[in-house]
Amino acid sequence: MVQIQSVHLGELTVGEEDLITFPKGIPGFEEVTEYVLCDVDDTYSYLQAVDQAELAFIVTDPFTHFPDYEFELSDELIEELSIAEEKGVAIRCIVTWNSNPARTTINLLAPLVFNVSDCLGRQIVLQNTSYQTKHLLNQSSQSESGES
């Protein structure tokens, strides 16, 4: 068992098998390579750094919010993460929370790709796409309130 301190979640005890390794880190946090995924509810989770209590990302399954979201994994990534089959892959995107829910955004341009069986992850940056780093997550809330 591993003890993890988290600013957002307090003290966590997780099994070694729950640790997710990002061999290259996450862009901007390359030196941090071990994380754990902690569900907050059915929609959101924290991707909590094992060795840095203050480093956690709110993440969500983009397909829950954007059913038409799609991209292809490169052969290089499939090899790097040792992905053998599609069902062993999980995709999450980082959410930037805002006190005004209509301004909460999701980074669809740079999804996190996980090899669930081997607990490996990598954030990739999609090329030649219209996806953005700050795509409004609650578009229906925004349109209902009349904001543009």
From TrEMBL:
It holds the Pfam family FliW. Its main location: cytoplasm. Keywords: Bacterial flagellum biogenesis, Cell projection, Chaperone, Cilium, Cytoplasm, Flagellum, Translation regulation. InterPro entries: Flagellar_assembly_factor_FliW, Flagellar_assmbl_FliW_dom_sf. SUPFAM superfamilies: BH3618-like (SSF141457). It is found in: Cytoplasm. The keyword Chaperone applies. Belongs to the FliW family. Acts as an anti-CsrA protein, binds CsrA and prevents it from repressing translation of its target genes, one of which is flagellin. Binds to flagellin and participates in the assembly of the flagellum. Interacts with translational regulator CsrA and flagellin(s). This is Flagellar assembly factor FliW. It comes from Saccharibacillus endophyticus. The gene is fliW.
